[in-house]
Amino acid sequence: CSSLAGIMLLEVFLVLGTLLIYFLFSKKKEEMLPFKDGWWGKGQKPVTKEDSSIRPFKVETTEEELSDLFRRLDQARFTEPLENSCFHYGTNSVHLRKVVSYWKNQFNWKKQVEVLNKYPQFKTKIQGIDIHFVHVKPPCLPEGQAAKPLLMVHGWPGSFYEFYKIIPLLTDPASHSLGDEHVFEVICPSIPGYGFSEAPHKKDFNSVSAASVFYELMLRLGFDEFYTQGGDWGWLICTNLAQIAPNHVKGLHLNMVSVSKLGLTHLLSVLLGRYFPGLFGFQDEDVRRMFPFLKKGLYKILSESGYAHIQATKPDTVGCGLNDSPVGLAAYILEKFSSWTDKEFRDLEDGGLERKFSLDDLLTNIMIYWVSGCIVSSMRFYKENLQKGIGTQKHEKLTVRVPTGIASFPNEILHIPQAWAKKKYTNIVSFHFMPRGGHFAAFEEPELLAKDILQFVGKVEKEQLWKKK
Amino acid sequence: ETILSRIRSFDYSQKNAVLVPAAALGVGGMLLYWARPRRKMNIIDMGNGWWGSCERPEEWKEDDSIRPFKIETSDKEIEDLHQRLDRFRFTPHVEGAAFHYGFNSSYLKKVVSYWRNQFDWRKQVEELNKYPHFHTTIEGIDIHFIHVKPSYVPHGQTVQPLLMVHGWPGSFYEFYKIIPLLTEPAKHGLNEGDVVFEVICPSIPGYGFSEAPHKKEFDTIAAARIFHKLMSRLGFRKYYLQGGDWGSRITTNMAQMLPQCVKGLHLNIAFLGKPSLRRMISIMLGAYVPWLVGLNREDARRFYPYMQKNVYDVLRESGYLHIQATKPDTAGCGLNDSPVGLAAYILEKFSTWTDKSFLHKDDGGLESKYSLDELLTNVMIYWVTSSIVSSMRFYKENFSTDPDLTAHNRVGVRVPTGIAAFPQEIIHTPHVWIKDVYKNIISYSYMPRGGHFAAFEEPKLLAQDIVEFVRKVEQL
């Protein structure tokens, strides 16, 4: 009788053991994200082969454009803020009036257009739409060295302009006391639907589509291997690119990461991580940035994600007025440059806007959205990516095996510790806590970011890590 | 002295015989006193407030005059509007978008063309002025309201005062079609004229022609209190309330604040907030055995599938709520500057909240239930008063202190309540759960058709239900 029970018990253990082994090992599937081909132009895809020429492009403006802008600024209708509300209800209209006054009287769009044109820009048609990009080669290269191609992708509500301060640090590091071991040629495209890139005319243009388009761009420019860098949507697009073409992406550098597959370990580490950080792989800085979790995590996400919620569901509605009112557009975009640079800026009457950026820079970025009329299509990207819910898409379930470097800025909207990031990015070569800076890293702290990119590339190159995947 | 000496002369056992019953009576009496049925304090504290700019003056007595008011417009206002309509910058929508990405820009072009060329704002202003408007200052701000009395009252009949409160993105104008059905029911074939109303429709402070609060924290409690003061100032001691959207929350709070003043509360939507564990279990069971948890067939039809109708649909439709509850000044800024942007934002709600299937239509089904004149008149009220930002702030003031709008649900509502449940309302709340909060439901009607903007879309259906409800209450 007891031997029978013993046999049954053994059987149960065997079954359980097999199941356990199956679950532990079966997940290690080698899966790549497929390249997403598409046609985003108007109407039907033509039978003839696409024009794949690369045409130089220059930003232009006209008197008409300027006078139309000024008329709208003059006739802007403001609403008085509540007493003592600072930036707690959104962009404070008293401060907004000052910004608008500067915009009208001191901001020189013609001069800024010249600034924009200081780097060579191009357009080329890929998958039916015109892709705009900046392509900056190093002014001079040390003997025997080749420039390393680096694709840098912006986010929302940013643009290719965010990289204008960091580009010289990467194409000419020697002149900026950053050494000359690694010199880059930088390519900054505009995401389709943003700035001077044509907006997709069809539905479903998501981050994988953008990654596929940029992959085609890099191939068309003749690059077989390259580095990628990104934050905000750029983080996701570059991640997808590393998943689509791991053999072509030598290294992936990010100033923002996010995780969408949240499981029991995440929940436990949120509840207990403050008391047992070591148990969950948290460092002191992780704990400092993440806890108290309700305040710095949950409530912060809720209070800052209204824009994402409405853009992911009704982009054409919310963008409509913003494409018609430059002041409304400025209020909407500037609010992010305030709260995503430092959440404490909400308590300031001027939103702390000019502490880290110049009005000229902020308004140039806004003007890119205004003159290209792209605010609505830029918002659609949220719907195309988020409408089916977070954590449901295929690419969110796949890991990234390309060497990855993460620069974690203290004032980023959400802090993701290395312990969580390495579940997705299985080959993290460097993870650094940056001393200062927020979401718009390249715009706000170009030198810090450039240094981190350089040290990351240094590690990858030294150990030829891209060959070891 | 003789009694004392007599007591002292009792021996021990006789003392006990007296003392024990006496003590028992004493203790028993105290227990009874303590356990006596007390009048439960189940009302909301009224509080007080001041919403004017700057500090409230020391020696201040509020000007309680009621001043007649007429809406006006000017050539300048219309000219400015036309210029903005003319220079609107369109963005083409993706192919096959219909209303899935929000307001369809091709259809918007048609709306703007009508607005520019055929819509007659002067004529609509006259239409708005056909009912008497007034202003009165309460707690430091000017409150706007219309007050419509029946033109003819049969001999000996009482006229019931009825306060009707609008919501967002509506206005007092939503009630223009239902008012005649309530002030002159017999004329519209509603009944024999046994129930007749005089109707008061205020504008919530921050909406339309009511001044916006200058201070923070103006929530539904403050609005409820102000409307009570309004009714009191108009000389009413007992009255009926009707509301939908924010109007539903405000009138509910009013009933909880001064139940003795509220004869009856009629709602076309009821909010219950996050379900308790008990209700979650009922929700899960109800999908399979609705009758077991008190749901009838119509409830089940409207409520399930649960995730689709109560989670996904709500998430899809609540982006506006999320941004308005967190950054109203940002969200409203551009809308106060671009009339077309304002129209797109507001009219999208009149499409989707009237019928969810309108999402699939290129024109959002707007003109199948409303005329462009009506829709644009409502939008114009927000435009000419520049009230879009202050209207959005109401979301932040309420949601930041009370995320599911149900802090006061624990207090319950004890006044006679009538609920008209419209099939295309954003969410359906079954009777069996509403009575957890609304303890005195006199009538609960499943309306045959209609959505969120009940008074605007189905005035006759709503009026009939209100009249039925009031008739029942009067007979109690």
UniProtKB/TrEMBL annotation, chain A:
Gene3D superfamilies in UniProt: alpha/beta hydrolase (3.40.50.1820)
A GO term for molecular function: cis-stilbene-oxide hydrolase activity
Subcellular location: Microsome membrane
Keyword tags: Aromatic hydrocarbons catabolism, Hydrolase, Membrane, Transmembrane, Transmembrane helix
Pfam families: EHN
Membrane-spanning intervals of the chain: 6-25
EC category name: hydrolase
E.C. code: 3.3.2.9
Catalyzed chemical reaction(s): 1-(4-methoxyphenyl)-N-methyl-N-[(3-methyloxetan-3-yl)methyl]methanamine + H2O = 2-{[(4-methoxybenzyl)(methyl)amino]methyl}-2-methylpropane-1,3-diol
Chief localisation class: membrane
Keyword Hydrolase belongs to the record: yes
Residue intervals of the Epoxide hydrolase N-terminal domain: 54-163
Annotated catalytic residues: 232 (nucleophile), 382 (proton donor), 439 (proton acceptor)
GO BP annotations listed: epoxide metabolic process
Membrane topology: Single-pass membrane protein
Family indicated by similarity: Belongs to the peptidase S33 family.
Protein's name according to its UniProt entry: microsomal epoxide hydrolase
From TrEMBL, chain B:
Bilayer disposition of the protein: Single-pass type III membrane protein
Transmembrane segments: 18-35
InterPro entries: AB_hydrolase_fold, Epox_hydrolase-like, Epoxide_hydro_N, Epoxide_hydrolase
Active site residues according to the UniProt entry: 245, 395, 452
Top-level taxonomic group: Eukaryota
UniProt keywords, alphabetically: Aromatic hydrocarbons catabolism, Detoxification, Endoplasmic reticulum, Hydrolase, Lipid metabolism, Membrane, Methylation, Microsome, Transmembrane, Transmembrane helix
GO-annotated biological processes: arachidonate metabolic process; epoxide metabolic process; response to toxic substance
SUPFAM superfamilies hit by this protein: alpha/beta-Hydrolases
GO molecular function: cis-stilbene-oxide hydrolase activity
Reactions catalysed: 2-(5Z,8Z,11Z,14Z-eicosatetraenoyl)-glycerol + H2O = glycerol + (5Z,8Z,11Z,14Z)-eicosatetraenoate + H(+); 8,9-epoxy-(5Z,11Z,14Z)-eicosatrienoate + H2O = 8,9-dihydroxy-(5Z,11Z,14Z)-eicosatrienoate; cis-stilbene oxide + H2O = (1R,2R)-hydrobenzoin; 11,12-epoxy-(5Z,8Z,14Z)-eicosatrienoate + H2O = 11,12-dihydroxy-(5Z,8Z,14Z)-eicosatrienoate
UniProt cross-references to Pfam families, sorted A to Z: EHN
GO cellular component terms attached to this protein's record: endoplasmic reticulum membrane
Epoxide hydrolase N-terminal domain span: 66-175
Residue ranges that the Swiss-Prot or TrEMBL entry lists as coiled coil: none
Similarity comment: family membership: Belongs to the peptidase S33 family.
This protein's name: Epoxide hydrolase 1
